[in-house]
Amino acid sequence: MTVTRGDVERAAARIAGRVRRTPVVEGDPGVVLKLEGLQHSGSFKVRGAFNRVLAAGRLPGAGVIAASGGNHGVAVAHAARALGVRAEIFVPEICAPVKVARLRALGAAVTLTGSIFAEAYEASAKRAAETGALEIHAYDHPDVVAGQGTVGLELMEQAGGVDTVLVAVGGGGLVAGVTAALDGAAEVVAVEPERIPTLHRAMAMGEPVLVEVGGVAADALGASRIGRIAFDTVTAAGVRSVLVTDDAIVEAREELWRGHRVAAEHSGAAALAALRSGAYVPRPGERIAVVICGANTDPSTLG
Amino acid sequence: MTVTRGDVERAAARIAGRVRRTPVVEGDPGVVLKLEGLQHSGSFKVRGAFNRVLAAGRLPGAGVIAASGGNHGVAVAHAARALGVRAEIFVPEICAPVKVARLRALGAAVTLTGSIFAEAYEASAKRAAETGALEIHAYDHPDVVAGQGTVGLELMEQAGGVDTVLVAVGGGGLVAGVTAALDGAAEVVAVEPERIPTLHRAMAMGEPVLVEVGGVAADALGASRIGRIAFDTVTAAGVRSVLVTDDAIVEAREELWRGHRVAAEHSGAAALAALRSGAYVPRPGERIAVVICGANTDPSTLG
């Protein structure tokens, strides 16, 4: 199953006025940075959350439900509050109290359950079956993918002459949406941490497979398998996959703060790491855009 | 002595390609934020520094000299390095070691002298007389003011329908430059901390006067007297002056991080504080731009 540019265009119309048009700024020569960490809720995830809810039309009384103590959970809680909808968020018991507090501050009902994400997800699915709440998957739903793709539509309006767009991959919602949005107008390079190669491994095996999850970006890119929609969409489009080390991610994040005063979480710096570390080497004159996709970081670790 | 829109336009041509076109983003409804903290060196100051050096033409062998352990010093060091010019920076002995290290990392020769800024400034002026180095004043020079004004030219291109621009005031270089750039196309509101009312007091007294300096934004807005050029330029243009409390500044800075993932130093949040605290109350439908002018802050204090 793939998502198309038309799907992304419809998503853009649906979520207009609900999400911020995030800025692009100049990076190194020939490079622009799309500062999607300045989005509501601190990451791109709110685009998919709004699109999923708005595309669903009339909602059940139980509202929406999602599993995630990270960016997706915060985004769903933000979208639900903005739309006046009840939100229930399931998070594993290890979730940092500050994240639970943030979800509650956004008005969500939070349930702590299970020792890992997969257990919290199972519990949320069971609960959704009981209550009838609308499940908002973190990446593997066409409306979520299409919503994330609106980053790509904006980017091409803001930096139309770009040849290549670098995007980080966790479950693949963003990279698939951006690939659909560009529809061949620019190439997409999918960037993953070496320690969470969901797409890279899937491409090697010919289908989504489970991978071990670790490293500095695991809190946000830590899906253990690439989404089906993402896999189908990016392989159909011939997206290239590159891997970056944790050290490269850490360096790129430091440079964003030092050289740009941009706060990024590790996942948000992963795509830039590919460029700075040489994991992706542009041709001479190639014009690059890099999506800095999240800023939900402890600022005390930036300096 | 006043600075004109023509001066600012010439500055813009001179420094083109040397400074970043910083983005504007949406704030509350009817409000745009100009994120000038994303500028090279982390503040607007580099615009004035480049313009001063480039307008001077052929430079003495001794290069440039300035007094400031803060944003101005870093901006001068940045501009000097970019232009291949020697820079000497005088800072008071109380200057934080991290700031001295940053100046040295930019290749500047740093001299620690005096217990307060005024003593470091005196020493730098004496040194300049000996070496012939080009003095780069932090605010009270027409080329510095004109350079800072390029923020205003950009802003009007980016957000042309704005009625009013809120700008923080220390020595007044930025507010004077922006006032000149706008040339009546939008109103300017000058925002100062209650504890450093250089412009407010000068307006009351009819001329620049010394004020006591204190409070959370003193590291960047801590001029003890408004610049002559700033005073003449903004009073001729009928700029309004408002004061904000330190509490309001702290709150605005927190909101920039919490709601926008924008890192700002206290001075950088002062203009927004006027809006959020009600020190400046827009008319219904009034469209506002707020200059977030600096991001050189300890990020561990943002959270």
Describe this structure in words.
- The structure is a homodimer of 303-residue chains.
- Chain A is 44% helix and 15% strand.
- Chain A has helices spanning 5-15, 45-55, 71-83, 97-105, 117-131, 142-158, 173-182, 198-205, 218-221, 228-236, 246-260, 266-277, and strands at residues 24-26, 31-35, 64-67, 87-91, 109-112, 134-135, 164-168, 187-193, 240-244, 288-292.
- Chain A starts with a helix and ends in an 11-residue tail after the last strand.
- The first copy, chain A, has 2 domains: 5-44 and 142-301, Rossmann fold; 46-135, 3-Layer(aba) Sandwich (Rossmann fold), CATH 3.40.50.
- The longest helix of chain A has 17 residues, at 142-158.
- With 303 residues, the first copy, chain A, is of the alpha/beta class.
- Chain A is built from 12 helices and 10 strands.
- In chain A, strands 1-2-10-7-8-9 form a 6-stranded mixed beta sheet, sandwiched between helices. In chain A, strands 5-4-3-6 form a 4-stranded parallel beta sheet, with helices on both faces.
- In chain A, strand 4, helix 4 and strand 5 form a beta-alpha-beta unit.
